[in-house]
Amino acid sequence: MDTTLLRNFLTVAEYGNITYASEVLQIAQPTLSVQMKKLEKQLNTTLFIRQARYLELTPAGLLLQEHARTIVALVDKTIHEFDSFDSNLSGEIKIGAAESILFEKISSAFNIFHRECRQTTLDVTSGGTEYILSLLANNLVDLAVIAQPPTLERYEFLEIPGYDYWGVVMKNDDPLAKKEVITNSDLSNKPIIVSRQSLTYDLPRWQGNTISKDNVVAYYNLATNAAVMVRQGLGLMLGFAGLVDVSQESGLTFRPLGPTLTNSMYVVWNKQQKFSPLINEFIKYVQLVCDESFEE
């Protein structure tokens, strides 16, 4: 299947309008219409429901949109990898990463690496560990930074030095803001904003605590969105220290859990993975930073 057709399909799907999409793609509107009909003929299905002023994706169109994104991303990643097969290291390094202040180690490694290999770029996708590992499994990222101990049979890994510390983000005027630490009992019957992953894997390690799903008012993947919900008074956010602005101007406060709950972070990649010279070299820099052998 022609990836140009898929890229153009994704643009039409995004804008929901052939005219707008043709302007973005800088091709004639009739040409783009013919391409979409050709794609429907190839797949022997209808991809769009043609409404009065916009195009609506059919269930088949939605499925193709999902697959097309994966195919195009994998093609682009392959091209970038082969771009680096020369004496001058260049290209793109794709990393999927769970949110963590320990990501500064990866940033530090790339900062040093980039000084020596200027023709490189870093592409970071953020999300929970399960999502990031799904990207790794489909070869959509080169490396993953995750908050759970890796499965040793499946992954090579480096442990990032340091820890993420758990705590609660709340509004400044919340009564719990007067406390030094937040205990299990403090959260009883409180509205909680939490990630699904932490509810399953992390919080049960905290005094055997299991936050009741009845108390969960929202789940999040990115801390910034969770902080907005806290600021709006929806509930208390459970998460890592350092991810949310808790300055006086922010209107938010962070208090650590007591007793302390921590997470380690790991850089992982698939076993038997055949990397380009670019990725192999970058992993060496990550190793040196994790071993604290580099100074910026």
Automatic annotation (TrEMBL):
Descriptive protein name: LysR family transcriptional regulator
Record GO terms (molecular function): DNA binding; DNA-binding transcription factor activity
Pfam families reported in the protein's UniProt record: HTH_1, LysR_substrate
GO-annotated cellular components: cytosol
Superkingdom, natural source: Bacteria
Keyword Oxidoreductase: no
Domain HTH lysR-type: 1-58
Family under the similarity heading: Belongs to the LysR transcriptional regulatory family.
Keyword check for Lipid biosynthesis: no
